[in-house]
Design brief:
Number of strands: 15
Strand content: 15-25%
Structural class: alpha+beta
Radius of gyration: 55 Å
Mean pLDDT: 77
CATH class of the largest domain: Mainly Beta
Low-confidence stretches: 1-29
CATH topology of the largest domain: Glucose Permease (Domain IIA)
């Protein structure tokens, strides 16, 4: 019964093909057949060149599509571990470079602050000039020091950072040398403080009065207004006179006029002191003396109208007010009293 139906179906299909004078090819399994209306039989059809090219192209296209999807999927979800490691390393380096820049900002501010303190405070205490600016700003010559790091994406940032580090290093070297000088000054500070005039040449208990201070006064003999370049201490003849700082006696002079019997002591650090109108000199030229050591006695020699000591302080060859150099000898209230007495006196004794 099944065979009869199959035969009928084939017969009907054959008649339809004959009527149309043609018949489309059809596959049976993997073999392709084509009906030949002349022989009224099915004939095997061999695939042509185009058939194979189409199959090859389809296969290649399929491979490309599958590969593209696979690579995209891998890049999106399964990034190569080496690439990821390199990316993280670059991010880490960029972060570290930014931190270094911030730290350099802080160090540069601290370096400038230290330089100001060095020049304006530390050195001024010892009367020293600021460290030479050309020493702080010295450069480094020679060929291009950064040629080996040029040509990369981060080259500009690295070169700028290296330049800042080099500049800071030079500033620190200069600052170190400057502080070494300040340290040397500090080591000699004890000697310096011992040498600077810092006490009164006549003891307070021996003073009769302060006859005249530093400034313009009426001359006792010429009766004209004249600059009085020291301070006059009235005291009985024979009152002891003290060296006001450590130093060396550089002049011992005995004159009938002018300063009469007088002594000059060189203390160093630009300071000298003069003691005039003495009745007796107790030191010799070239002698080393200490602060508080007796160097002579109050008198009335030279151009003088009464027993007193004329005392001067010279700084770098310029005569300055001795009242500014009694900081080791007087309490604040005593110092104020001394200044008041000096201002009241309108006439000097020499």
């Amino acid at each position: 019964m099944g065979k009869t139906n199959d035969c009928k179906s084939i017969g009907i299909w054959i008649l339809s093909c004959v009527n149309r004078r043609t018949c489309k090819s059809r596959y049976m399994g993997r073999v392709k057949y084509k009906y030949n209306p002349e022989s009224l039989n099915y004939e095997t059809v061999k695939p042509g060149f185009r058939f194979y090219m189409w199959r090859i192209g389809a296969a290649v296209l399929a491979v490309l599509i599958i590969s593209g999807v696979t690579i995209s999927f891998q890049n999106a979800f399964f990034e190569n571990s080496k690439v990821g490691e390199l990316r993280r390393e670059l991010q880490f380096k960029d972060h570290q470079l930014e931190q270094i820049k911030n730290e350099l900002d802080t160090l540069e501010v601290l370096a400038i602050d230290l330089q100001h303190k060095d020049d304006d405070i530390y050195r001024s205490i010892f009367g020293s000039d600021p460290y030479p600016s050309h020493m702080r700003q010295s450069g480094i010559g020679g060929a291009d020091r950064y040629r080996n790091i040029k040509g990369f994406a981060s080259s500009e940032a690295l070169i700028e950072t290296k330049k800042r580090i080099s500049k800071l290093e030079r500033a620190m070297v200069a600052q170190s040398k400057s502080l070494e000088e300040v340290f040397d000054l500090a080591k000699s500070r004890t000697e310096m403080l011992s040498s600077i005039p810092a006490i009164q040449p006549v003891n307070n208990k021996d003073l009769t009065r302060m006859a005249s201070g530093f400034g313009y006064r009426i001359h006792p003999i010429y009766k004209i207004r004249k600059l009085h370049t020291g301070m006059d201490y009235t005291a009985p003849v024979g009152t002891e006179i003290y060296a006001t700082g450590d130093g060396e006696v550089i002049r011992v002079e005995k004159k009938r006029t002018g300063y009469g019997l007088n002594v000059i002591i060189r203390h160093g650090y630009g300071y000298e002191t003069l003691y005039a109108h003495m009745s007796k000199i107790k030191v010799k030229k070239g002698q080393k003396v200490k602060r508080g050591e007796v160097i002579g006695l109050v008198g009335n020699t030279g151009t003088s109208v009464g027993a007193h000591l004329h005392y001067e302080v010279h700084k770098e060859g310029r005569k300055v007010n001795p009242a500014n150099y009694f900081f080791n000898d007087l309490l604040p209230e005593q110092y104020e009293e001394l200044l008041e007495k000096a201002q009241v006196a309108n006439q000097s004794l020499d």
